[in-house]
Amino acid sequence: MKKIINDPETVVQDALRGMQAAHPDLLSVHYDPAVVVRADAPVQGKVAIISGGGSGHEPLHGGFVGRGMLDAACPGAVFTSPTPDQVLDAVSRCDGGAGALLIVKNYTGDVLNFETAGELAESEVRSVVIDDDVAVKDSLYTAGRRGVGGTVLLEKIVGAAAERGDDLAACVALSERVIASVRSMGLALTSCTVPHVGSPSFELADDEMEIGIGIHGEPGRQRVPVGTASEMVSALLTPIVEDLPFEAGDRVLLFTNSMGGTPLIELYLAHGIAEQLLADRGITVERRLVGPYITSLEMQGMSLTLLRLDDEMIELWDAPVHTPALRWGV
Amino acid sequence: MKKIINDPETVVQDALRGMQAAHPDLLSVHYDPAVVVRADAPVQGKVAIISGGGSGHEPLHGGFVGRGMLDAACPGAVFTSPTPDQVLDAVSRCDGGAGALLIVKNYTGDVLNFETAGELAESEVRSVVIDDDVAVKDSLYTAGRRGVGGTVLLEKIVGAAAERGDDLAACVALSERVIASVRSMGLALTSCTVPHVGSPSFELADDEMEIGIGIHGEPGRQRVPVGTASEMVSALLTPIVEDLPFEAGDRVLLFTNSMGGTPLIELYLAHGIAEQLLADRGITVERRLVGPYITSLEMQGMSLTLLRLDDEMIELWDAPVHTPALRWGV
């Protein structure tokens, strides 16, 4: 295992120290329990938007804490759900009197622990579960579909709604609309290695890729020989489009995501192909996001996410955001 | 070779198509010769800031085209200098009457081809050569030190100066001041594979890392067993600090860069260690940049860059920038 770490047992807290050092103006990091909080929290009168999950998917979620997006993120151990006390701590630090919305990716442990925290919290708390991965029905860590790339778009859009003053019920309703309109799928060219495990999560032959991979290296739909970029993009985009389905005339946000180890030159290349395939179907790409935003440590591979946009979602997507990983209008 | 590409021979132009699709509002991409141009070029009365170099280091340089940074970038083939006609084309598209500054990384081919273009151009053209890598004196592609991470900081700072209206002579003088104040060094945990070569650029054993690696995989100072993150950061930071030298009381920008395949969790971890080591020396980190900004395809590894700041550099660093890879204040 070759990694830039000191000790597999302290990777998460050591990385949090670096995040705090890198973004002193944006973040306030707490270590026991581990919570990344917006520096000016609690914001009075604003719904607190809180998310979290296993570490190893950076910048998700800590990199999305800040104005116009998350009030707090709860980082679990690598690929492990955060505990209820982390979520409770985040709620108590961020509730500015308008309650808190918990954004939960659909994994069994996450759903259970966020739910427990929601029940124990003294604040008014609602939660939404995102399950945008079309690859598989159930999986290693999930009943139902997994939450993946759509989470990034949901956190941005509902974060902007909370920032402009939408109340908790409105934030929940908007979240449900985004969740109903977003679909994703990913592929892996290589595995990743969890630090405290020390060996690759799975094995892929030198000429193989896994289509429909999960963000923890969970199995997908099939292993096939590595093809061309056009074949890869089509293998992801076709099931995504057919699932919702996205149709000619739809306006969409296209999010082309690296799993962590794929360089930007390949990601842009794939993005260009995806734009062309969507144009061929008469689907209009109105907004884009290209980069490593929800990753699986050093895994090489990519995912595509499509969100069907309406005017309000576009306005909220374009609204100012100031976080370590996404920033515009500020 | 596992890559998300269609054809090793067309990787650069295929990726440029994706960049154009992803950033229609920011960039205007030309393909013959290949030049990435700011969408509103030429900006009348503004010095044009132009850079370029081999592809495979994305987002450098095309990702830094836009308001407050570069007017154009000339992407060569992967790890190959751009040709003089690319640079000439960039100059003619971007000169708004105030001349052009060419920012050249110190590699023999780059220096020669940018120099040739400067001589052939009808515009007033000056060039500066950046050579911030303290690892080795000469190398495979260089007489003298190599240009690496400092290039990103130089492009941002001199780009802001041009944007506020500094003339060509002032931009040259500022560039020389930045170049005199910036030092870098990198390390690799894994090699990378150039698409049209198809095999790794070099071999590293499972327990080895290369200290002082170049951004094309050129040999560095030494191969040593993989150590802890603290040992790695110290192995980079000590020679950087001692070279200038940076001294107690200095104010610096610390840039912690991924070589492309290193995940953000490791990069933040390393950044935190570097901040602590600088604090121990009485050096004040005033600004930071953490992420994959000058890469070597999918290479795992990192580099550190330190820039000694003065008030004007801080003002120019903070000035608005709107490019695919760096954006703030807009």
UniProtKB/TrEMBL annotation, chains A, B:
The keyword Kinase applies. This is Dihydroxyacetone kinase subunit DhaK. GO terms for molecular function: phosphoenolpyruvate-glycerone phosphotransferase activity. It comes from Lentzea rhizosphaerae. Keywords: Kinase, Transferase. Its EC number is 2.7.1.121. It is an enzyme of class 2 (transferase). The keyword Transferase applies. Residues 7-328 form the DhaK domain.
